[in-house]
Design brief:
The chain has 277 residues and is of the alpha/beta class. It is 38% helix and 18% strand. A 6-stranded mixed β-sheet has the order 5-2-6-1-10-7, sandwiched between helices. A two-stranded parallel ribbon has the order 3-4. A hairpin with a 3-residue loop joins strand 8 and strand 9. It is globular, with a radius of gyration of 18 Å. The chain starts with a helix and ends with a strand.
Length: 277
């Protein structure tokens, strides 16, 4: 199958009911193994989505695939990447053997300027640890889109808006990161088993929630100038925050956005999860 045929295959899927968009605060890789309120909510959310409409494919924008330039994964059989250390062998033994979605990846490459194909990445833990609960049978094709570290916040948001056509082709799009993600500040509490959040973490998480509810996405794009000191502590690096902008950029104007899970734990880790549509 040549590139033209692959693109024709993806765009020939009949328009479907518009798929929702998710943002998932994925947290620790151990959530893949644990039974807790967060993972139980993911399982319930997966059932709700499947009952509504089974996706043709799943696109994940994960905090853990950082590149120079933007790449879509074209692997027919993406590997399960264990991109972490210091966890039990049981976690390293886990696999998520979903097929890839090269036809949909190619449709992005042809539809969106300056997106390229790559077979050098599989499914990192920002993807498979949450899909393990949402779609436990691993029977829906999955591919990832990388985060270009050279792009500005606004450029990431604008790129997301160009991906909206996928929602009408049966593609479930998931941003996977954390609104608040400060591991350095969280480690002392993690070591002590203290799950209480820092005030600045709760403040920033609630600020983001308010801006989402007000549809003030411009403030979320420009959080560095507007959120004050809490933003600097909550987002010491932008990798886990950027997927938020993709999920919001994919939301239609005035589309309902529901907060499906809310928690800030271990000092500086927000597990906030929301759905548009």
């Amino acid at each position: 199958m040549n590139l033209h045929d692959i693109h024709k295959t993806a765009t020939s899927f009949p328009k479907s009911e518009k798929m929702p968009v998710l943002f998932i605060g994925h947290g620790s890789p151990m959530n893949a193994l644990e039974d807790n309120p967060f993972t139980r909510r993911l399982k319930q959310l997966g059932r709700e989505i499947r009952q509504r409409q089974m996706p043709h494919a799943i696109l994940v924008v994960s905090a853990h695939w950082l590149t120079r330039g933007t790449f879509a994964g074209i692997n027919a059989r993406p590997e399960t990447i264990h991109d972490f250390g210091g966890f039990p062998q049981e976690l390293f033994a886990m696999q998520y053997p979903a097929p890839g979605a090269p036809s949909f990846a190619q449709s992005i490459i042809e539809h969106v300027h300056d997106v390229h194909g790559s077979d050098e990445w599989g499914l990192d833990h920002g993807t498979w640890t949450v899909l393990h609960h949402l779609f436990p049978e691993a029977n829906v094709p999955v591919f990832q889109l990388s985060l270009d570290v050279t792009k500005s916040m606004q450029q990431h948001f604008d790129l997301a808006r160009q991906l909206q056509f996928l929602r009408e082709r049966g593609v479930l799009i998931v941003g996977s990161g954390n609104i608040v993600h400060n591991l350095r500040q969280s480690m002392p509490k993690l070591m002590m088993g203290d799950a209480t959040p820092y005030d600045w973490a709760t403040e920033f998480d609630e600020w983001v929630k308010a801006k989402i509810d007000q549809r003030d996405f411009a403030s979320l794009v420009n959080y560095q100038q507007l959120a004050g000191g809490s933003g600097q502590l909550a987002v010491p690096t932008t990798d886990h925050y950027l997927p938020v902008l993709y999920s919001l950029g994919l939301a239609d104007k005035d589309e309902n956005i529901t907060h499906t899970f809310e928690e800030v734990s271990y000092g500086g880790l927000s597990m906030r999860t929301f759905m548009a549509g």
